[in-house]
Amino acid sequence: MRATRLHPLGMGLRPLYLLLLQLLLQLLATWQVAETQTVLIIESVKLTILPGQHVASGTDVTLRCDPKITSGTGMPLKHGYTFYRDSTSVYANETTASSLSHVIRQARVVNSGSYKCSVKVHGQYKESDPESLNVTGLQTPVLLLSKTTVTEGEEVTASCSAPNETGSFYFYFFEGSKELKKVPTSENLAKAQLKFSSPGNESVTCQYVISLQPDLVTSSRSKPSRVYVQELFSRPVLTMEPPEAFEKESFSLTCYSHNISDQRIQRDQVKYSLSRNGVVLTPGDFSGKFNTTAEAYRNGNYSCAAVAKHIRKSSNVVVFKAKVLVSKPSIFVPGKVIVGKPFQIHCHCENGSLPVSYTLLSNRVPQPPVLLVRQPNKTASFWVTVRRKEDVRNFTCEAENNGHSSRKQSQVLDVAVTEPVSVPTLLIMPNFGSVTEGEELFLACTVREGSPPFTLKWYRDGSDQPLDTLMTKERTGLHVLGPARREHTGAYRCEADNPARDARRSELVRVSVSLARWKLVLIVVSCILLLTVLIGVGCYRYRAQRGKRETATELSVKPSSPKSEDSLTVSLAHDTDAYNAHTDTDDQSSVETAKEPDVEYTEVVHPQPADGSRGPVRRGTDTVYSELQNSPAGVADPPGYQGSMEFVQLNHDLPEPV
């Protein structure tokens, strides 16, 4: 009974136990999730490109994404990985692995770009920094032709492929370096129908370009394929006869294809047309020859075209310009003409087709050389020299460009000629260099030969600095020295020059400046007066001296038989009338005479003894003059002085009488 009672109770408690256990587990899981969400952090995500960021085309490239996550639980977490190229998803996966790799098999140029990866864990998201991948080298394209031998104008099918390449393509087809076709496609194969314009062996190649925004990557060219193109007809040739034509002369143009494939076309099936400056001149039937006359309005670029079987070929271009006969030439001198110096004569035709030959004539006689001018705006230049001014009018020139019949002659050369100056003459005015003080002194410089204007300069000998410079059209120029002075005496010269720049100098001319006449008269008068005074003074002094002697001398005369003891003494005092009168006159005439000291003369008579046996004998006397100087005027006479002059007669053997 007890057991029976307990069994239902046990059966009722078990579901409750299970319910409680399930709730406990749910709470534990919720706690774990909450704890995980609170401690989960994606610190960084790194993208690695292996074997490197720069690889060659066809290399396997691995992209590895490595996140760094911090988590508070040890339970594995699901990671959502995504790889991007240029912001476009290229691969995605969800795994509990801590890193993920993505492999690009045989990478091509189209795989180049900027890559990054991202990781998403429990609602958290983080991206790596971008990394660049550069795949270099495109596959060389392969070219195939439907046929290698064609006829001119026949089409050829060409295909160009780039296996294993992907992307957006542009395919190009070339004939040598000339581009024939351009085909855009998203596939790695393109086809085109080609036509070849030139006969002969042609080299055909192809090339492709892949668009990698924003750049374009170009492949190398394919191996060339050879086509031999057979010519249907040759390119026409345009010829002109004669090669040159002057105005009013006839000429012809001929257009002709020399080679024509007789198997495919008849010669008359080739049609020709002639054009000038791109305008067709023969819209109707044109046999290939065009005759016309040379005129200026027919000048231009001529060409012709040949057409057959829808093939058009153009000829070479012939430039036609009707030649113009020379016009009357002009003759001129660009610079100065100086007698005796070389100068250039230019000859030029305003109109006339080149080349033009020019000849210089002197007195209608051709002078070598003959000059040929081949360039436009060029003149013929001849070097000449003239010895006389009038010789320049002997020159003319001739020009021709189409033989003797086209010859034209210029007018006579008319140009100003400069004659160098002759040696100038210097003239002193007035009196040819002999002038007196005060007279106006002029230096006249005269040029007898030469062309004006003249430049005259005056120099003093020994100085390089001109006294004066004068520019004049006259042949004589004056330099005024002014009123003549003694310092103007010297040698002078003048220099003459003109545009010939050949200066000449005169000979030296001396200038002599003498004293003024009034000065000469004054000097002569002064000399005469001085001489007169000197003569007067000399005469006066002579008379004065003589008067003194005559007045102051008293001769003592004794009888024929005087006694031996007789003697005579005469003394004249200064206060005698005669003396005083003479003295007064002397004082008025000259100061020097007044100051002359008084002279005292003494005469001594010596009696001779008598001879009784003979007749009366004249008694001889010896006179002795003794000059004694008196005191000057105003000075007292010495004591015992008895007169200015005393004559004493002394006998040699007799005492003085009492």
State the low-pLDDT regions, or none: 1-11, 554-658
Range of helix content: 10-25%
Shape descriptor? elongated
How much is the radius of gyration in Å?
Answer: 74 Å
Describe this structure in words.
Helices cover 14% and strands 41% of the residues. A hairpin with a 6-residue loop joins strand 42 (490-497) and strand 43 (504-505). Strands 2, 4, 5, 7, 8 and 9 form a six-stranded mixed sheet that branches. The radius of gyration is 74 Å and the shape is elongated. By secondary structure, the protein is mainly beta. The termini are far apart. It has seven domains: 1-37; 41-136, Immunoglobulins (Immunoglobulin-like, Sandwich), CATH 2.60.40.10; 142-230, Immunoglobulins (Immunoglobulin-like); 243-320, Sandwich (Immunoglobulin-like), CATH 2.60.40.10; 330-418, Immunoglobulins (Immunoglobulin-like, Sandwich); 425-514, Immunoglobulin-like (Sandwich), CATH 2.60.40.10; 525-648, no CATH class. It has four helices and 48 strands.
Provide the fold topology.
Layout: H1 2-39, E1 41-50, E2 54-56, E3 59-70, E4 79-85, E5 88-95, E6 100-107, E7 113-121, E8 124-127, E9 131-136, E10 142-145, E11 149-151, E12 155-161, E13 169-175, E14 178-185, E15 189-195, E16 200-212, E17 215-218, E18 225-230, E19 237-241, E20 250-256, E21 271-276, E22 279-280, E23 289-293, E24 300-308, E25 311-314, E26 318-320, E27 330-332, E28 337-338, E29 343-348, E30 356-362, E31 365-373, E32 380-384, E33 395-400, E34 408-409, E35 417-418, E36 425-429, E37 434-436, E38 440-446, E39 454-460, E40 468-472, E41 476-483, E42 490-497, E43 504-505, E44 509-514, H2 517-552, E45 569-572, H3 577-589, H4 591-594, E46 599-600, E47 628-629, E48 645-648
Parallel strand pairs: 2-9, 11-18, 28-35, 37-44
Antiparallel strand pairs: 1-3, 3-6, 4-5, 4-7, 7-8, 7-9, 10-12, 12-15, 13-14, 13-16, 16-17, 16-18, 19-20, 20-23, 21-22, 21-24, 24-25, 24-26, 27-29, 29-32, 30-31, 30-33, 33-34, 36-38, 38-41, 39-40, 39-42, 42-43, 42-44, 45-48, 46-47
